[in-house]
Amino acid sequence: MRAVNLIPAEERRGGGGSAGRSGGGVYVLLGALAAFVVLAGLWVAAGRQVDDRARQLAEVRTKADAAQATADKLAAYSRFATVAQSRLETVRNVAASRFDWSHTLREVGRVIPEDVALESLDGSVAPPAAPAGDPAAAAATPSGPTLKIIGCTPSEQRAVARLMARLRQIDGVKNVALESSAKEEAGAAAGGLTSAGGGKGCANGKGTGAPKFTVAVTFGSVPVAPQAAAPAAPAAAASAPAAASTATPTGSTTP
Amino acid sequence: MTTRDRLVVLVVAVLAACAGGFFFLVKPQRDDAAELGAKLTQEQQRLTDAQSAATTAQQAKASYAADYATVARLGKAIPADDDVASLVYQLEATAKRHGVDFRSVKSSGPAAGAQAQAAAAPPAAQAAQAGADQKAPGGDAKADAAKPAGGGTVPATQAAAATAPAGSPVGTAGLPTLPFQFTFAGSFGNMRKFLAALDDLTVVKRGGLVVRGRLLTIDKVSLHEATDGFPKLEAAVDATAYLVPPTEGDTAGASPQGPAAAPSAPSSGSAVPAPTAAITGGLR
User: Fold this and answer.
1) pTM of this prediction?
2) Cβ distance of A229 and B157 shorter than 8 Å
3) ipTM confidence score
4) pLDDT tens digits for B39-56?
């Protein structure tokens, strides 16, 4: 015999199941409501953010325009200050990087031995051009100021050696090289630029030849102010290797 | 349609509505906010830059008198033109003070060479040259030749300026160089003091710049026995003088009342103005 439930379906206990009588529709509606609330919150927050930023943007624009107008109005003063500063720096750097010829000549006069007279002295700040295509010769080319000293001595060759040793004591000297030293006929060399003997020349009175010499003195690079080399053009820097060097001949430059 | 089916349709509809609301309402607002944020950052940067420029300009205005005085004083060291007359006067006075005889001065600037070439050229060539100058002010081959290779400025050092072609712009200020050759006669000691005095015309002392006369860098010194005999020597001196850029002038167009309203227009070339004199022979 088959059992039959005579209670109407809507009256039965738990008749809607876990979803209730709406079949879960109420939960969906609640979820939808929550989602709409969240969306509305996001929309309102974004709208406020837009308004705030638009207001800030307008304020900042106004301030920036005002500051720009002030800057534009006074731009001529800025330009002139830049011109003045750049001129001052350039003049200062050039003046500070000069080779001190006076000090060098004083040092030369101080170290020349009594029995040596100078006939000529040629100095140059610009280093001689390096031979093209010869790396070894280029490496040997001095990078700093050079002095070429021609002189003579009534003494023997050892006076030339003594002169070279003394020349090395000059401030900032990097190298002293002897180009030549040869005895000449008596009386061939006379006079001179400077000598402890008061320019009495190289005649030694013995009828023997007095050595005439040529000595090349190389100084360390002329010091460069740090900011001076900054705008160097490549070609200019290549033509002036001394500018990039930091070696400083102490005491041989303008204070 | 069963209850479950209706439920599924309802859920899908709600999800679709949420997605639509997000993409059509919230997201555009957020995009607008992000765009405004980016613009705000840009404007704030512009504001910072403008405020910085305004502050700098105000400081420049406050220090204008001092800057003008500096530029005016520097005019003694770096004049607007070669100003040979003043240079000769300064050298003569300095030489006399140190017992040195100022024998000769010769300018070997690029303008001198250009003048010599122009003088030697036939009139037609001169006319063509003048026409070329008018057509292409910046394309003067001679002016280009005077510039350092690469077209940049030479570092503000004696060594760099000594090796650069005449007229090369030196340092950040772009001061054109003007080489001179001088001859002096005197004793070794006097010559030494005289060379020191030449440096002292414009010298850095205790970090400051003291300007008494022209800025000269002595590039070469050649001492030989003078014709009068020892102890008198003859000194051949190669020196470089510096000028202010021709486009700026002495004070860059400024006056004691205020600076020039607009930047100076570039001139037709960077050639150094021609020397007004070339003196040889004894100056007593």
Assistant:
1) 0.70
2) yes
3) 0.73
4) 999 999 999 999 999 999
